[in-house]
Amino acid sequence: MSGNLNSNNIENDTFNLNNEDSDYKDLITRLKEIKSTIDLLEKTLFK
């Protein structure tokens, strides 16, 4: 029985790491979009 619990814990940990990696990639993408928006606004303001 404890073998199943350990196996499930490893699978859950792997799943959590994959989610965190995906969240990190989403955050980086969003930050790049925000940076692009700021750059565009700066160009518009300082014309």
Could you provide a short overview of the structure?
It contains one helix and no strands. The chain has one helix at residues 2-45.
Describe the model:
The protein is mainly alpha-helical. It has one helix and no strands. The chain is rod-shaped and about 60 Å long.
Q: Kindly state the mean pLDDT as a whole number?
A: 80
Can you count the helices? 1
Percent range for β-strand residues? under 5%
Helix content: over 70%
Find the count of extended strands (DSSP E, 2+ residues). 0
What is the radius of gyration computed over CA atoms, rounded to a whole number of angstroms? Answer: 20 Å
Order of helix and strand elements from N to C terminus: H
Q: How is the biggest beta sheet arranged?
A: none
Based on secondary structure, the structural category is mainly alpha
Keywords:
47 residues; mainly alpha; 1 helix
Q: Strands, helices and their partners?
A:
Blueprint: H1 2-45
